[in-house]
Amino acid sequence: MAASGSSSIGMSPRVHPRPDYGMVKHEVLRFTATELFRLPALCTLVTVLTRPMYSAAFHSTAWREWWAWAESAPLIPLPGWVTANDLFFTLGLWLSLTSVFILCHGIFGSLDYFGLCAKYKVPRKPAQVPSITLVRAALLEQAFNHLIMAPIMMLLFVGPLLRLRNPTGVVPENLPSIDRVGLTFVVCYTLNEIMFYFAHRLLHSKKLYAGIHKQHHSFVGTISIAAEHAHPIEDALSAYLPFLAGVVLMGAHFHIVFVWFFVRLTEVYEAHSGYLFRGSLLDRVWLSSGINSVCHDFHHTGNRGNFGHPLLDWCFGTMDAWVANGGATGYVNQGIKRQ
User: Does the CA dihedral 127-143-189-195 come out positive or negative?
Assistant: First the structure.
């Protein structure tokens, strides 16, 4: 069923007549139950598996020598509130962000370039394919953010804040118990989804969309690098604050922070990749975020609701067009018919 009429930009997009949300009830609830367990469990597993690596890095002679050099380097004056632990946090989180950036964009870029896994690619109209100019601009912007802006923010603000919340949270031996680690990831995931939904919905208000959020929507048919193509105000509202809320509230160990950003960003990149791996091996072993990718893909191609987690859109009535078009299956099938 196609949407008969709707307002495209706004905090509460509506289709008239309103569709029956019961059509996607089971799809939404199944995804919600799966994700609430899958993502924290995956993060906890990665934390356990990478704990020896974290411990080796923290206790390494190379790290101690590097800090001694940084303290004495006349060309890099550090503020008085910055400690060795803050620098360790900055290096660790930067490596986590950089590695997931290269890994995910390398994989999705290769799939697009070589036409691999084409059966999982969401169909695109020619006008929805991003231009080389747009892709180049996004890459240059993200290179600046990853190489310059992010390390500065980590070193001067985020690291010291997390150190104040958990003064011994850098020491490998102080990593909490498995149940506490799992609880921390549940809180991080829940707060991230709630805060992103309302921040994203706010960015679609008439006062904020044109001047701020429209930059992100310059990608109509998204690819993975579109995820971070955003105005600085949008970055603060819908990325930095939602990502950090849980780890700050829980006083998370530094290792947990590194893992949280790595794993969560794989989902963010997948959500913008234009791929739906439903039924694939990745999906069967819970390494894919399922319908989340096409929910957000519809948000970009149609720009009618789907502001965040499907459960929140379902509860607050902001997925009218998605429901009217038959949910994930209807969206993909309609894309195939357009080809």
Answer: negative
Q: Where are the alpha helices (DSSP H) in 122-224?
A: 132-144, 150-153, 159-165, 178-203, 206-209
Peptide bond preceding 123: is omega within 30 degrees of 0, i.e. cis? no
The rounded distance, in Å, linking the Cα atoms of 239 and 153 is 14
Q: Is 74 helix (H, G, I), strand (E, B) or coil?
A: coil
Are 266 and 106 in contact by the 8 Å Cβ rule? The answer is: no
Rounded to 5°, angle at Cα 53 from 50 and 54 = 90
Residue 74: per-residue pLDDT: 58
Report, as ranges of residue numbers, the positions in the chain whose pLDDT lies below 70.
1-10, 71, 73-76, 335-339
Q: What is the rounded distance in angstroms from the CA atom of residue 98 to the CA atom of residue 287? A: 20
Note the pLDDT of residue 339. 47
Residue 297 and residue 122 in contact, taking contact as beta carbons nearer than 8 Å: yes
Locate 88 and state its tokens: 């360790």
The one-letter code for the residue type at 247 is V
DSSP assignments along 34-72, one per residue = HHHHHHHHHHHHHHHHHHHHHHHHHT-HHHHHHHHHHHH
pTM comes to 0.93
What would the pLDDT profile of 319-337 be if each residue is shown by its tens digit?
999 999 888 888 887 754 4
* φ, ψ for residue 6, nearest 5 deg: -160, 160
Would you state the pLDDT for residue 337?
Answer: 45
Distance, in Å, from the CA atom of 148 to the CA atom of 142, rounded to the nearest integer, reads: 10
How crowded is the C-beta side of 286, counted as CA atoms within 13 Å?
13
Give yes or no for a contact between 15 and 318, defined as CB atoms under 8 angstroms apart: no
What amino acid is encoded at 321 in this protein? A
